[in-house]
Write a structure and sequence with these properties.
Blueprint (H helix, E strand, L loop, with lengths): L13 E9 L2 E9 L7 E5 L4 E5 L7 H8 L6 H12 L9
């Protein structure tokens, strides 16, 4: 093998799967809570096959996460509300 593993960590992660209807669109999201990402949750869109690391402060920056997660502009307010519901619960452990 011609590679070098620089880091490896194992943890039991808190993973949630959601199917959300907003407007005329459906979003299938996975939310992975981990202490590995500096207190941010990994939000993965199954449809777009992309992810964004988010904390509650990042929700206001929809120009960052909405395109990655495939959220259409008219659904952003509803998805913001959903993300606040999830991320304001402080299920993500602060690492520092």
């Amino acid at each position: 093998m011609n590679f070098e593993i620089l880091s490896e960590e194992r943890e039991k992660q808190n993973i949630h799967y959601f199917c959300i209807a907003a407007g005329n669109h459906r979003y299938d999201l996975s939310v992975i809570y981990s202490s590995h990402f500096l207190g941010k949750a990994m939000v993965i869109s199954i449809q777009s096959e992309r992810m964004a690391l988010l904390c509650s402060e990042d929700i206001e920056h929809s120009s960052y996460w909405a395109p990655k997660l495939g959220i259409v502009p008219e659904d952003i307010p509803k998805i913001e509300e959903f993300l606040h519901f999830l991320l304001d619960q402080k299920l993500v452990m602060d690492q520092y």
